[in-house]
């Protein structure tokens, strides 16, 4: 059996162990310390703009805290992109709030601005002003920032920008992760860089960042003893994990280049023109976290996936939209069929930044048999 090719596996840069060793040597083996501060500062500089970063235990925790900080609670409605990973939507339920799902546009595969406006108008007519919009740069492709943020301003509904898959992507020359009222990143094992597990919440002020850290460290009020007047969470990133993050940030630009060059390779070497790709719209720069192809039909998608599996190559269907998930299908949704179609015919190809050219040839070899 040929060696397994993974969809997207961790890729260490070399500097990580130095920072972890420093943490051990100085006994900063705690959920705070110099690695956490440096990791946050480096990310802030990287994102530019008005970004204040709080390092957390996961991207999911970051979305949850964004909802907490926006005051989302029981009975509130939150608009959420349907075409995404369930972690974008689950925190809405943690807060006892109600998701309303919005389908995608073909240009970016992300939230369709027209459907978003329809949904807002519909909810306003029903006397339910949505508390937030959760919008995603899926697979690293920026959503239509101009149009979505215009609607957010027009109707005064804040945006939670889910950049879990989009660190290194840009829209209009600015980094994804710097656009939302709150933005989130993920450093889970399969993301563009990883700390083995981790995330970040990005806010627009120092006060909001401090509030995020307050909630992430059990919401301790100022007192010599432990005093609590709010619900707290144990969501802070540890100083060990942040050491991995510091090493990973040193190689982030290389990782983006490697993923983009995977995409270019696939686009050039896959000869069957019935397999298509999503191109970058004008003004967008994607990290190409995962290269996705669209096939002519569900049946062909499955044939391709199983042929790859036979050759010990991992691939994965595109995300199944939330409005089709057993957990979420009872909630209101505004759909146009786009995400369902993408789910049926789309496939993510191995896209790790550590994939070799030989492996890429093995993969296209299978695809070119179709
Ligand atoms: C990975 C991911 C998350 C969650 O991040 P974790 O760090 O795994 O909790 C959220 N949204 C999207 C779109 C993701 O891909």
Automatic annotation (TrEMBL):
Family: Belongs to the DegT/DnrJ/EryC1 family.
SUPFAM superfamilies tied to this protein: PLP-dependent transferases (SSF53383)
Alphabetic keyword roster: Pyridoxal phosphate
Positions bearing N6-(pyridoxal phosphate)lysine: 191
Presence of the UniProt keyword rRNA processing in the record: no
GO terms classed as biological process: polysaccharide biosynthetic process
Gene Ontology MF terms in the entry: pyridoxal phosphate binding; transaminase activity
Domain of life: Bacteria
Active site: 191 (proton acceptor)
Any single Pfam family the record assigns to this protein: DegT_DnrJ_EryC1
Name used for this protein in its record: dTDP-4-amino-4,6-dideoxygalactose transaminase
InterPro entries: DegT/StrS_aminotransferase, PyrdxlP-dep_Trfase, PyrdxlP-dep_Trfase_major, PyrdxlP-dep_Trfase_small
């Amino acid at each position: 059996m040929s060696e397994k090719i993974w969809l997207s596996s961790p890729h260490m840069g070399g500097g990580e162990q130095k920072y972890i060793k420093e943490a051990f040597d100085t006994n900063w083996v705690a959920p705070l310390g110099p690695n956490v501060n440096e990791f946050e500062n480096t990310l802030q500089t990287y994102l530019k703009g008005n970004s204040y970063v709080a390092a957390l235990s996961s991207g999911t925790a970051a979305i949850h805290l964004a909802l907490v900080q926006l005051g989302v609670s029981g009975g509130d409605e939150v608009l959420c992109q349907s075409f995404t990973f369930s972690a974008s939507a689950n925190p809405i339920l943690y807060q006892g709030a109600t998701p309303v799902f919005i389908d995608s546009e073909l240009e970016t595969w992300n939230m369709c601005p027209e459907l978003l406006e329809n949904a807002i108008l519909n909810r306003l007519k029903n006397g339910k002003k949505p508390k937030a919009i959760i919008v995603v740069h899926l697979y690293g492709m920026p959503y239509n920032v101009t149009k979505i943020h215009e609607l957010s301003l027009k109707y005064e509904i804040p945006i939670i920008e889910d950049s879990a898959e989009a660190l290194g992507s840009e829209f209009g020359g600015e980094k994804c992760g710097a656009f939302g009222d709150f933005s989130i990143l993920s450093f889970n094992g399969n993301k563009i860089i990883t700390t083995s597990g981790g995330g970040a919440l990005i806010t627009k002020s120092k006060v909001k960042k401090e509030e995020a850290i307050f909630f992430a460290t059990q919401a301790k009020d100022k007192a010599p003893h432990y005093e609590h007047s709010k619900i707290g969470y144990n969501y802070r990133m540890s100083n060990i994990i942040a050491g991995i993050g510091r090493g990973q940030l040193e190689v982030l630009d290389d990782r983006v280049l490697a993923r983009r060059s995977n995409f270019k390779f696939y686009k050039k070497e896959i000869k069957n023109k019935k397999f298509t790709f999503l191109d970058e719209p004008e003004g967008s720069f994607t990290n190409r976290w995962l290269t996705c192809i669209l096939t002519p039909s569900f049946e062909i998608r499955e044939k391709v996936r199983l042929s790859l599996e036979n050759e010990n190559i991992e691939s994965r269907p595109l995300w199944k939209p939330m409005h089709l998930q057993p957990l979420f299908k009872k909630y209101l949704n505004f759909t146009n069929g786009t995400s369902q179609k993408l789910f049926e015919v789309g496939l993510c190809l191995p896209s790790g930044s550590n994939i070799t050219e030989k492996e890429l040839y093995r993969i296209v070899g299978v695809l070119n048999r179709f």
